């Protein structure tokens, strides 16, 4: 479990993106949903596919394969220009339902280790999504990778309202 302090007083629906260190970026948000529903939206491929790609990007998630368990793998394939596509893939290093998912990003040598931590209090869930890169240069190259998080998390929020209903 991530032992960092969480701010349950963070405004509901406010997405905060910040640089934690030379090698780590983090995004936080409080959702008005229990951790089990937030975890489900991160671990169920049919749900994940509905919110992960920002609508403003205009790209489509062509396929979404996720075996969300420690030792499992994932592969997300996006439609590119014309018939081209690109994929993100890796392994789940640590999965503790409904509190934590840790995965590798194995597309290249500079891939981050990504972690989603969920802390529930009074039916709300504080989510921290962090990416730790192998070097400062690797993080610098990927800066902007979390710029879409506010839109993604707004889309996730809509899914959570549906699941709670």
How would you explain this protein's 3D organization?
The protein has an eight-stranded antiparallel sheet, covered by helices on one side. The protein has four helices and eight strands, in the order ββααββββββαα. Helix 2 packs across helix 4. The protein has one domain: START domain (Alpha-D-Glucose-1,6-Bisphosphate, Chain A, domain 4). Helices cover 24% and strands 36% of the residues. A hairpin with a 6-residue loop joins strand 3 and strand 4. The radius of gyration is 15 Å and the shape is globular. The chain is of the alpha+beta class and 165 residues long.
Q: What is the element layout, followed by pairings?
A:
Elements: E1 16-19, E2 24-31, H1 35-43, H2 45-51, E3 61-66, E4 73-79, E5 85-96, E6 100-104, E7 113-121, E8 124-132, H3 136-142, H4 149-164
Antiparallel strand pairs: 1-2, 2-8, 3-4, 4-5, 5-6, 6-7, 7-8
Helix pairs in contact: 2-4
What's the short story on this structure?
With 165 residues, the chain is of the alpha+beta class. It contains four helices and eight strands; from the N terminus they run ββααββββββαα.
Low-pLDDT residue intervals, each spanning 5 or more residues: none
State the helical fraction: 10-25%
Strand order of the largest sheet: 1-2-8-7-6-5-4-3
CATH architecture: 2-Layer Sandwich
Question: What is the number of E strands?
Answer: 8
- What would you give as the CATH superfamily? START domain
**Overall outline:** globular
CATH topology: Alpha-D-Glucose-1,6-Bisphosphate, Chain A, domain 4
Number of helices: 4
Q: SSE order, as H and E?
A: EEHHEEEEEEHH
Query: What's the Cα radius of gyration?
Result: 15 Å
- Provide the structure class: alpha+beta
Name of the top-level CATH class: Alpha Beta
């Amino acid at each position: 479990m991530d032992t960092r302090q969480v701010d349950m007083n963070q405004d509901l629906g406010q997405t905060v993106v910040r640089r934690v260190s030379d090698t780590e970026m983090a995004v936080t948000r409080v959702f008005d949903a229990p951790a089990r529903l937030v975890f489900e939206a991160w671990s169920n491929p049919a749900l994940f596919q509905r919110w992960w790609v920002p609508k403003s990007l205009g790209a489509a998630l062509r396929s979404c394969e996720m075996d969300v368990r420690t030792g499992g793998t994932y592969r997300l394939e996006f439609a590119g220009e014309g018939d081209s596509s690109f994929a993100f893939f890796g392994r789940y290093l640590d999965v503790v339902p409904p509190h934590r998912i840790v995965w590798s990003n194995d597309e290249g040598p500079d891939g981050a280790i990504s972690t989603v931590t969920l802390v529930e209090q009074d039916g709300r869930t504080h989510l921290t999504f962090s990416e730790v890169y192998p070097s400062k240069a690797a993080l610098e190259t990927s800066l902007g990778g979390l710029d879409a998080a506010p839109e993604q998390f707004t889309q996730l929020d809509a899914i959570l309202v549906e699941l709670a209903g």
